[in-house]
Amino acid sequence: MDDLTLIQIDRNVKQWLRQARTLVLTKMTERLTVNEKSSRKDLVTNVDKENEKFLITKIKNYAPDSHVLGEEGFGDQINREKGWIWIVDPIDGTMNFVKQQDHFAIMVALYIDGQGVLGYIYDVMNDELYSGGPNLGVFKNDVQLDQPANTALADGLVSLSAPLLIHDRFNLLQAADESSGVRVYGSAGIEMIHLLTGKIITYVSYLKPWDFAAGKILGETLGLVTSTIDGQPLDMLSSGFVMVATENAQRDILPIIGQNG
Ligand code: 2AM
Ligand code: CA
Ligand code: CA
Ligand code: CA
Predict the structure, then answer these.
(1) Which listed ligand is nearest to 90 at the C-alpha?
(2) How far apart are CA 128 and CA 24, in angstroms?
(3) What angle do CA 12, 14, 15 make, to 5 degrees?
């Protein structure tokens, strides 16, 4: 794909995302319909669903041959990486959305034949859109971001998902203890933004494709490494324990993971 086409797609996606943000902000002023999915800690609202439908309609109108993987199920069944695959998380951090009306993101990613091309993480309440990909670089709104420093574990803050912390999985508490400290934001998208801007140096969580699709593209563009928790390559269509980190932090954490069960 030539750069001109890429820039045109990028411009369109940003426009949809701004409209999606307005949709979410408007719907937030009305009463939410909140339902449980797998548990009382796993919520979905009418806004998640309406925003996913909105984004899928925009994508399908613009690029009808695309396939869309959406968290709330309004997209397509996808079992191979071929072609244009868009991955949509209409509200990432739904618990934060419901309880805090803050700290949530809209995320979109475009993969072509399995390669990450464009990624978007929109911090709705701060009106900060992180966007880009390997051919464009990474931007916070209109400002290009530099690579974050390649900080070692001992010198930076790490983020672990609450379930991993609470249940002390994979010996991660020791890794956390060897860092400068732990921060937990409750939205994979917001954690990714903190990685992109160098505010944290590692994020580990159980994630599904829509949770990490955009962050993987943006993070790798800025020299961060994304892998499974044991350092293996991520399959973009599978769920699992994911680590996003600076190269040095990953090097420091991998030997700690899994020690003592
Ligand atoms: P979500 O809000 O889009 O569901 C913290 O909960 C982070 O983990 C959020 O980014 C959330 O995304 C994601 N997540 C993935 N699976 C989850 C689950 N089963 N329950 C709650 N959050 C989940
Ligand atoms: Ca969810
Ligand atoms: Ca999510
Ligand atoms: Ca979601």
Answers:
(1) 4
(2) 15
(3) 65
Contact in structure between 103 and 190 (CB atoms under 8 Å): yes
The residue to which tokens 């699709």 are assigned: 213
* Domain boundaries 153-253, corresponding CATH code: 3.40.190.80
Structure ipTM: 0.97
Is the C-beta atom of 188 inside 6 A of ligand 1? yes
For the chain, domain boundaries = 3-144, 153-253
Q: pLDDT tens for residues 57-104? A: 999 999 999 999 999 999 999 999 999 999 999 999 999 999 999 999
CATH 3.30.540.10 corresponds to the domain 3-144: yes
What DSSP assignment string belongs to 92-143?
E-HHHHHHHS-S-EEEEEEEETTEEEEEEEEETTTTEEEEEETTTEEEETTE
Q: 48 CB under 6 A from ligand 1? A: no
